[in-house]
Protein backbone atom coordinates (compact mmCIF):
# COMPACT_ATOMS: atom_id res chain seq x y z
CA UNK A 1 0.00 0.00 0.00
CA UNK A 2 1.50 3.32 -1.08
CA UNK A 3 1.59 6.48 0.99
CA UNK A 4 -1.31 7.96 -1.02
CA UNK A 5 -3.32 4.79 -0.50
CA UNK A 6 -2.56 4.86 3.21
CA UNK A 7 -3.83 8.41 3.42
CA UNK A 8 -7.07 7.35 1.74
CA UNK A 9 -7.82 4.72 4.39
CA UNK A 10 -10.58 5.92 6.66
CA UNK A 11 -9.28 7.03 10.08
CA UNK A 12 -12.00 4.95 11.76
CA UNK A 13 -10.39 1.80 10.35
CA UNK A 14 -7.05 2.87 11.78
CA UNK A 15 -8.67 3.55 15.13
CA UNK A 16 -10.38 0.15 15.18
CA UNK A 17 -7.16 -1.63 14.19
CA UNK A 18 -5.13 0.00 16.95
CA UNK A 19 -7.93 -0.67 19.47
CA UNK A 20 -8.20 -4.37 18.58
CA UNK A 21 -4.45 -4.90 19.02
CA UNK A 22 -4.38 -2.94 22.28
CA UNK A 23 -7.33 -4.81 23.79
CA UNK A 24 -5.78 -8.18 22.98
CA UNK A 25 -2.45 -7.21 24.54
CA UNK A 26 -3.83 -5.74 27.78
CA UNK A 27 -5.65 -8.99 28.59
CA UNK A 28 -2.42 -10.71 29.59
CA UNK A 29 0.90 -9.77 31.15
CA UNK A 30 3.40 -11.94 29.30
CA UNK A 31 6.22 -11.29 26.88
CA UNK A 32 5.26 -13.92 24.29
CA UNK A 33 2.04 -12.29 23.10
CA UNK A 34 3.67 -8.85 23.04
CA UNK A 35 6.68 -10.09 21.07
CA UNK A 36 4.44 -11.94 18.61
CA UNK A 37 2.33 -8.85 18.01
CA UNK A 38 5.43 -6.69 17.65
CA UNK A 39 6.94 -9.00 15.03
CA UNK A 40 3.68 -9.16 13.06
CA UNK A 41 3.27 -5.38 13.14
CA UNK A 42 6.48 -4.78 11.18
CA UNK A 43 5.06 -6.18 7.89
CA UNK A 44 1.92 -4.13 8.50
CA UNK A 45 3.97 -0.94 8.74
CA UNK A 46 5.84 -1.88 5.57
CA UNK A 47 2.57 -2.51 3.73
CA UNK A 48 1.22 0.83 4.93
CA UNK A 49 4.25 2.61 3.49
CA UNK A 50 5.62 4.03 6.74
CA UNK A 51 8.84 5.87 5.92
CA UNK A 52 12.07 4.89 7.64
CA UNK A 53 13.01 8.29 9.07
CA UNK A 54 9.72 8.95 10.92
CA UNK A 55 9.74 5.33 12.06
CA UNK A 56 13.20 5.66 13.58
CA UNK A 57 12.52 9.02 15.21
CA UNK A 58 9.14 8.25 16.71
CA UNK A 59 10.06 4.64 17.35
CA UNK A 60 13.10 5.82 19.30
CA UNK A 61 10.98 8.05 21.51
CA UNK A 62 8.53 5.21 22.14
CA UNK A 63 11.43 2.89 22.95
CA UNK A 64 12.71 5.35 25.55
CA UNK A 65 9.26 5.55 27.14
CA UNK A 66 8.98 1.76 27.11
CA UNK A 67 12.42 1.50 28.69
CA UNK A 68 11.44 3.82 31.53
CA UNK A 69 8.30 1.78 32.15
CA UNK A 70 10.35 -1.42 32.17
CA UNK A 71 12.88 0.10 34.56
CA UNK A 72 10.14 0.98 37.04
CA UNK A 73 8.78 -2.56 36.94
CA UNK A 74 12.29 -3.98 37.20
CA UNK A 75 13.09 -2.08 40.38
CA UNK A 76 9.70 -2.04 42.09
CA UNK A 77 7.82 -4.95 40.52
CA UNK A 78 6.40 -7.89 42.40
CA UNK A 79 9.12 -10.06 43.92
CA UNK A 80 9.23 -13.61 42.60
CA UNK A 81 11.88 -16.31 42.42
CA UNK A 82 15.48 -15.48 43.18
CA UNK A 83 16.25 -11.96 44.41
CA UNK A 84 19.35 -10.69 42.60
CA UNK A 85 19.62 -7.26 44.22
CA UNK A 86 17.94 -5.58 47.15
CA UNK A 87 18.27 -2.01 48.38
CA UNK A 88 15.60 -0.31 50.53
CA UNK A 89 12.39 -0.60 48.46
CA UNK A 90 14.22 -1.86 45.36
CA UNK A 91 14.01 -5.58 44.68
CA UNK A 92 15.37 -7.02 41.44
CA UNK A 93 14.18 -10.60 41.16
CA UNK A 94 13.29 -13.15 38.52
CA UNK A 95 9.67 -12.02 38.71
CA UNK A 96 10.46 -8.32 38.29
CA UNK A 97 12.82 -9.07 35.38
CA UNK A 98 10.12 -11.05 33.58
CA UNK A 99 7.57 -8.32 34.27
CA UNK A 100 9.94 -5.60 33.02
CA UNK A 101 10.55 -7.50 29.77
CA UNK A 102 6.84 -8.07 29.27
CA UNK A 103 5.98 -4.42 29.91
CA UNK A 104 8.75 -3.19 27.60
CA UNK A 105 7.51 -5.30 24.69
CA UNK A 106 3.88 -4.56 25.52
CA UNK A 107 4.33 -0.80 25.46
CA UNK A 108 6.08 -1.06 22.10
CA UNK A 109 3.45 -3.37 20.62
CA UNK A 110 0.59 -1.11 21.72
CA UNK A 111 2.16 2.29 21.11
CA UNK A 112 3.74 1.70 17.70
CA UNK A 113 0.50 1.01 15.78
CA UNK A 114 -1.29 3.71 17.76
CA UNK A 115 1.30 6.24 16.58
CA UNK A 116 2.05 5.15 13.01
CA UNK A 117 -1.55 4.50 12.02
CA UNK A 118 -2.33 8.15 12.78
CA UNK A 119 0.72 9.86 11.28
CA UNK A 120 -1.20 11.74 8.58
CA UNK A 121 -4.78 11.68 9.90
CA UNK A 122 -6.61 14.99 9.65
CA UNK A 123 -8.89 15.80 12.62
CA UNK A 124 -11.73 16.70 10.23
CA UNK A 125 -11.53 13.30 8.51
CA UNK A 126 -11.55 11.52 11.85
CA UNK A 127 -14.56 13.52 13.01
CA UNK A 128 -16.42 12.74 9.78
CA UNK A 129 -15.77 9.04 10.28
CA UNK A 130 -16.79 9.05 13.93
CA UNK A 131 -20.04 10.82 13.12
CA UNK A 132 -21.01 8.96 9.95
CA UNK A 133 -19.60 5.45 10.42
CA UNK A 134 -19.58 4.90 14.18
CA UNK A 135 -22.68 7.09 14.59
CA UNK A 136 -21.33 8.92 17.60
CA UNK A 137 -23.38 11.94 18.77
CA UNK A 138 -22.65 14.89 16.51
CA UNK A 139 -22.56 17.22 19.51
CA UNK A 140 -19.65 15.25 20.98
CA UNK A 141 -17.86 14.82 17.65
CA UNK A 142 -18.02 18.46 16.58
CA UNK A 143 -17.09 19.66 20.06
CA UNK A 144 -14.07 17.33 20.17
CA UNK A 145 -13.01 18.49 16.70
CA UNK A 146 -13.19 22.12 17.76
CA UNK A 147 -11.13 21.33 20.86
CA UNK A 148 -8.49 19.49 18.83
CA UNK A 149 -8.13 22.44 16.50
CA UNK A 150 -7.47 24.72 19.48
CA UNK A 151 -4.70 22.49 20.84
CA UNK A 152 -2.37 23.72 18.12
CA UNK A 153 -2.74 27.26 19.43
CA UNK A 154 -1.33 26.46 22.87
CA UNK A 155 2.30 26.64 21.73
CA UNK A 156 1.70 30.00 20.08
CA UNK A 157 -0.12 31.28 23.18
CA UNK A 158 2.76 30.14 25.37
CA UNK A 159 5.26 32.05 23.22
CA UNK A 160 3.19 35.23 23.23
CA UNK A 161 2.67 35.02 26.99
CA UNK A 162 6.45 34.79 27.37
CA UNK A 163 6.94 37.84 25.18
CA UNK A 164 4.38 39.80 27.18
CA UNK A 165 5.93 38.88 30.52
CA UNK A 166 9.41 39.81 29.29
CA UNK A 167 8.09 43.15 28.07
CA UNK A 168 6.78 43.83 31.59
CA UNK A 169 10.12 42.80 33.12
CA UNK A 170 8.78 39.84 35.11
CA UNK A 171 10.54 37.06 33.21
CA UNK A 172 14.19 37.84 33.89
CA UNK A 173 14.67 35.70 37.01
CA UNK A 174 13.16 32.82 39.00
CA UNK A 175 12.60 30.50 36.05
CA UNK A 176 10.59 27.93 37.99
CA UNK A 177 8.19 30.48 39.43
CA UNK A 178 7.95 32.16 36.04
CA UNK A 179 7.08 28.87 34.34
CA UNK A 180 4.42 28.06 36.95
CA UNK A 181 2.86 31.50 36.66
CA UNK A 182 2.91 31.38 32.88
CA UNK A 183 1.34 27.89 32.91
CA UNK A 184 -1.49 29.14 35.13
CA UNK A 185 -2.03 32.11 32.83
CA UNK A 186 -2.16 29.75 29.85
CA UNK A 187 -4.74 27.60 31.64
CA UNK A 188 -6.95 30.61 32.35
CA UNK A 189 -6.59 31.79 28.75
CA UNK A 190 -7.52 28.32 27.42
CA UNK A 191 -10.61 28.13 29.66
CA UNK A 192 -11.79 31.53 28.49
CA UNK A 193 -11.27 30.61 24.85
CA UNK A 194 -13.10 27.32 25.37
CA UNK A 195 -16.05 29.11 26.96
CA UNK A 196 -16.24 31.56 24.07
CA UNK A 197 -16.06 28.72 21.56
CA UNK A 198 -18.83 26.79 23.34
CA UNK A 199 -21.04 29.90 23.38
CA UNK A 200 -20.41 30.54 19.69
CA UNK A 201 -21.22 26.93 18.79
CA UNK A 202 -24.44 27.03 20.80
CA UNK A 203 -25.43 30.28 19.11
CA UNK A 204 -24.93 28.68 15.70
CA UNK A 205 -27.10 25.71 16.55
CA UNK A 206 -24.48 22.99 16.98
CA UNK A 207 -26.11 20.09 18.79
CA UNK A 208 -29.58 21.60 18.70
CA UNK A 209 -30.95 18.69 16.64
CA UNK A 210 -30.27 14.93 17.02
CA UNK A 211 -29.34 14.58 13.34
CA UNK A 212 -27.17 16.73 11.13
CA UNK A 213 -25.74 16.81 7.63
CA UNK A 214 -22.06 16.34 6.81
CA UNK A 215 -20.18 18.27 4.15
CA UNK A 216 -17.77 15.42 3.37
CA UNK A 217 -19.00 11.80 3.02
CA UNK A 218 -17.00 9.22 4.96
CA UNK A 219 -16.85 5.75 3.40
CA UNK A 220 -15.77 2.37 4.71
CA UNK A 221 -14.77 -0.06 1.95
CA UNK A 222 -12.35 -2.83 1.04
CA UNK A 223 -9.10 -1.09 2.19
CA UNK A 224 -10.65 -0.36 5.58
CA UNK A 225 -11.90 -3.93 6.03
CA UNK A 226 -8.48 -5.26 5.02
CA UNK A 227 -6.72 -3.08 7.61
CA UNK A 228 -9.12 -4.08 10.38
CA UNK A 229 -8.77 -7.74 9.39
CA UNK A 230 -4.99 -7.41 9.65
CA UNK A 231 -5.36 -5.99 13.15
CA UNK A 232 -7.67 -8.84 14.17
CA UNK A 233 -5.22 -11.38 12.71
CA UNK A 234 -2.35 -9.87 14.72
CA UNK A 235 -4.43 -9.90 17.91
CA UNK A 236 -5.61 -13.50 17.43
CA UNK A 237 -2.14 -14.75 16.51
CA UNK A 238 -0.50 -13.11 19.54
CA UNK A 239 -3.04 -14.60 21.94
CA UNK A 240 -2.89 -18.03 20.28
CA UNK A 241 0.91 -18.22 20.38
CA UNK A 242 0.91 -17.13 24.02
CA UNK A 243 -1.70 -19.71 25.02
CA UNK A 244 0.00 -22.54 23.12
CA UNK A 245 3.39 -21.71 24.63
CA UNK A 246 1.90 -21.65 28.12
CA UNK A 247 2.97 -18.05 28.78
CA UNK A 248 -0.56 -16.63 28.84
CA UNK A 249 -1.24 -14.87 32.13
CA UNK A 250 -4.70 -13.31 32.24
CA UNK A 251 -4.76 -10.05 34.16
CA UNK A 252 -7.78 -11.13 36.17
CA UNK A 253 -6.25 -14.43 37.19
From TrEMBL:
One of its GO terms (cellular component) is plasma membrane. InterPro entries: ABC/ECF_trnsptr_transmembrane, ECF_transporter_component. Keywords: Cell membrane, Membrane, Transmembrane, Transmembrane helix. The chain crosses the membrane at residues 12-35, 55-76, 97-116, 225-251. It is found in: Membrane. It is a multi-pass membrane protein. This is ABC transporter. It comes from Mycolicibacterium litorale.
